[in-house]
Design brief:
Length: 1086
Amino acid sequence: MANSRRHAPGEDGLRAVDLVTDHLEKPSLDDRTYRVIRLPNQIEVLLVHDPQTDKASAAMDVNVGNFSDEDDMPGMAHAVEHLLFMGTKKYPTENDYSQYLAAHSGSGNAWTASTSTNYHFELSAKPSNDEEPTAANPSPLLGALDRFAQFFVEPLFLESALDRELQAVDSENKKNLQSDQWRLHQLEKALANPKHPYYHFSTGNLETLKTLPESRGINIRDKFIEFYEKHYSANLMKLCVLGREPLDVLESWVSEYFSVIKNKALKPGRWEGEVPWGKDQLGVQCFAKPVMDSRELDLSFPFLDEDLLFETLPGRYLSHLIGHEGPGSVMAYIKSMGWANGLTAGAYPICPGTPGVFGCQIRLTKEGLKNYKDVVKAVFQYIALLREAGPKQWIFDEQKGMADVDFKFKQKSQASRFTSRVTNEMQQPLPREWLLSGLRVFRKYDAKLIKQALDCLRPDNFRMSVVSQEFPGKWEHKEKWYGTEYTVQPISQDFMEEIKKAAATSAKDRIPKLYLPHKNQFIPTKLEVEKKEVKEPALAPRIVRNDELVRTWYKKDDTFWVPKANLIVSCKSPIVYAKAANAVKARLFTDLVKDALEEYSYDAELAGLQYSVSLDSRGLFIEVSGYNDKLAVLLEQVLITVRDLEIREDRFAIIKERLTRGYRNWELQQPWTQIGDVTGWLISEHDYVVEELEAELPTITADDVRLFRKELLSQMHVELYVHGNLYKEDSLKLTDMLESTLKPRVLPRAQWPIQRSLIFPPGSNYIWKKTLKDAANVNHCIEYWLYVGDKADRQIRAKTLLLNQVMHEPSFDQLRTKEQLGYIVYSGIRPGATTYGIRFIIQSEKTAPFLETRIEGFLESMVKIIDSMSETEFENHKRSLIVKRLETPKNLDQETSKHWNQIHSEYYDFESAQQDAAHIKALTKAELLEFYNHYVHPSSPHRAKLAVYFIAQAKSDVSTKQISELVSTLGLSSDASAQAATDLQARLSAAGHDMDKEIEGLRQYLLHELKVSEDKIEAATEAWKKLHKDKIEANGVVKDADPPSSNGTTPQIIEDVRNFKAGLAATGGARPAKDLSEYEELDSKL
Ligand SMILES: [Zn+2]
């Protein structure tokens, strides 16, 4: 704890570094070593030596965020975050950093919050010779730290990147515009005290960051540099570096690269003068209209500032009780009344110096919406109950006990998630010894503080909102940034009187169903782990039972040594997917099971035991996971519920209504999240899309589900996996419990369902079009998919994986960074059940056929990138990919899912990573090129393509064709024209339908960016006015260019899915990579 002076070697001899501490409280299984130091410029650094990690990582948290934005330029902090990546004095090439990371199996990201901006990356932890890294033989971390540090030393804020990155910010904002989460959060902020920075619009858009400031004559680049200069200071930075190198090596690197960051000795932000909600903002109710068909009731109370209360955490005590879902809780009561589908409660901070908030959100049913006042009163009655009962030490002890166990057995998470999170937490005033344990363990019971916290939950100290599409039916205002419709008004006097009465109830006039929870029976008491030294952890589980009815896979944990286990059961039956109506009945059934188990399983969940019941095309899944001590108890209850559940009409109606909305809301989601399902449906032999399921739902009754359950459970084949801190006998006992509870008949082997994908012959060229349901959405989307072949073919796999590795960074750089087609630009591998393919997804204001031409343009250029790649670069890519493939699971859950994926896919290919690595290693550049020219190059007659087009209904944007015509009036070179077309399209779209704004945007751009002469500007303006008129006259319908075809095939629009599928052959089903008898370890005694 004492600060001693240390010395670390630097380039200029010796440089002083303070040791803050090297004794961090850590989980009992944690094999990392930690050291906290402070550099002479006051950057605090957490160094982490992890001898096992595959990935090295670093993160920097800067104590400034959107709360420091200037009032008239919202989004500044966020824009600076985007711009910081783009070139530094030492490494001036824009994508140098991302290229370096990509070449070493890595990636980076950043985020901006209210008082923090956080930058982080991770990459391969070992040097290219695969030996342990040392100072003399460093891992790629060294080069990454050098590049990373430069962001904070001398960033360039490149003029050339400025517009593009602001487009990226704008696109990010557009992506959020239809998201209720963003909309409602911003509404809450917009209704806060305008003098408090909570009121800010945090993301920013092109208008706030460019158009408006420039119209006021502001040079925005200067403004961003000014923000950086004013707020980025070494003493506000927290750094974490994690690697395989010894701590002393990490320390010397950090000292060398980060000590030069300027310390401006700035004061950390504190906001004390104003509160987010003053008298005027309390005692009000807000009614807001969501995009999705959802209903929510939201109560928030200004709360304590818990910044310094990390030892006592009174907010957690209250959220445990108010958020409880077991018997006696608010949730159990309002659910029994048919009013609610869910409830969450908790305290969260706003910023240092400002009181936090205690919030309670309730998802309402239709009935609940009608009775929302009674729901509010029930919450206040429960608060009265808590006040009357007073703080209870045993409740705190139970919470503390569980938190201690969880921390003790906490397993590692992804390297960059760890560094990003810990640097953010380092901004809190925690003792440095508690950086890892700080908010995860409870330390002191403080009844007085709990009472103080409870005193914040008063009728005169709260505000509420009701979110619903139908109630009250009319909304008076529109929120400025997202356009959310709302009304806000004081809570009526009558209603307030009722609330006050509820908050003052005593035991005799309280709802009898409200009481404190009982002691939790699920808290694990046996936490022993038998640790047996093993030479090499086993790659595959074993089969311990295999007969007509059941196949049980089992592996005793030999790596993580936690007192936990996972059990996954797959009950296979062909009837689940025989028709869409069955899939819906099965879904309703699993929803009803979960609904019935809610109260019972809540205690288990608190005690670290989870379960789930879900579906796929071959049957029903049951999963139970967590501390193994009481796992069997929970499994038994789940199985009994599956077997005996009484399907009540009232619950059925609520669940059915919820599912109806679920399907409808699914189609209102962001286009890019929907598109994968449609492609999946088109490439598999047998699948359903949401429209098909939605069409079946109205006619299904509770009786249908009762009958279906009976049929489903009567006959099946069961395959399960037991993994963790359990013995072989335990796995057999759990299997017996399954068998004796469900008592199914054998499903003969010949009837086990088989999954097949479709085969796309050479030259296939298909297009599927769909108009999106959300009338207000302006984003189109494309999934462009190229069929490659059999998923089990080792050569195909290796080549596809390597191509994806080589193509990933260039495709993002071209389509997202350079062309700014949209915020969502993604390329990757898209497997079917039995096939492999490569896909691109782009969500954009630009139309799908245009996006397709851009993807094809990129694919044409890609061949040159591969061709001109040096052997060293090519070998680096191979190495990088092999490292990724051989990455080991970080915790028990990850290993379980890795194995389960192999069991569930029926390939049982437990060595697939090793096999892939060996096949990748052998590949030559010539082979990759040949593969590319055959399967991917747009001019190849052999390639097989499917493109899914999602068409947005709202056309606030302009077509590519119109833009091209406009650009042709400017007489630019072809390169400049392409750039101008991209820029203008985004600019004009940002102006919406407003003609004056469009013209203004156009003039500004031509004048400042392209430096076009006045007469040409006049001509272009006239041309635009005419086009604008045409657009209006055409009633918003803009014709697109035809989709491209450069290999001589004609695109076929899929009109009839049955005909389309009937025209294609299907693959064989999945086959085990090895004979399953090789895994058998059956008990000879039985
Ligand atoms: Zn961003």
